[in-house]
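Q: Convert this sequence to structure tokens.
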Amino acid sequence: MIHSKLINQTHYTLAERERLSDTVFMPEAGPHVLLKTCNRIEWYWGEGVLPDETLRHLYRVASGLESGLVGERAVQGQLKNAYQDASRQYTLSSSLHKLFQTAIHTGKRVRNETKIAEGAVSHSQVTVDMLRKEYPDLKQKVVSIIGINKLTEDILKFLTDNRTVTVFLSNRHFEKAGLLAAQYGATAIPLHEKKRMLDFTDILISATSAPHTIIHPDDLPGGREMLIFDLAFPRDVEPAIAGREGIKLFDLEHIEHFAKANLRLRMAEVHKAELIIEEEIQKFREWECHSKRLCNKLIL
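A:
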């Protein structure tokens, strides 16, 4: 049987997901696919019978229906990468191959045949919208970004369109920060000098893959106002920092709550997406039955 273990935003808060991510591991060391995003940690393993619940869940994940921001596009690429990584590392069962291949196909169908992804709501765009709301005029502001990835680069593109903004970039691998800084006219700062960087920072955006917090209360200068966006999972910024005077801290849950007001068009498309998913589940079961009949003939 195909098994799955799911830790996601549907059943757990951000804080609960962080705690569980440190203590829960793949129950068996055998071939498996591990899907990790800002909303979920999910394991899939085994062979043979594929429960309806598992099949439907992964199809919904691939289609963006289980995301904090319904219809977002990033999860499809993340799912594809997780499957390809597992395929290189392990000899996966035919059932696991079929599950992920058809889930990727279903996600593409949903995005091509519905308007579920229109309006392009993403974590980067929502962060920019919230930033505009907090600071309609960004003149003379100093923005520090920690972590180099597509999410932070999308935000960086917006910031560097506004030439009055000073941007510092920092990353565990300084070379990556230097290359991106040169491309966008920013300044690269070694991560071990973050404290010096934060002395001048008005807006901090952090989105690293660190397994623990990297911004602590004693990293921030006393008496300085600062707007902080923590886009990482697990979180980069110690939550206690939110209690300091002059500090406004937003994490992934705040960002997804803010985004819900922009999702009306997408929500109207959910039913169409669900119909496509049910069609694809039916196709999968037909393929399964056909495969079993062929196997039975070979045995006879």
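The first strand starts at residue 2 and ends at 8.
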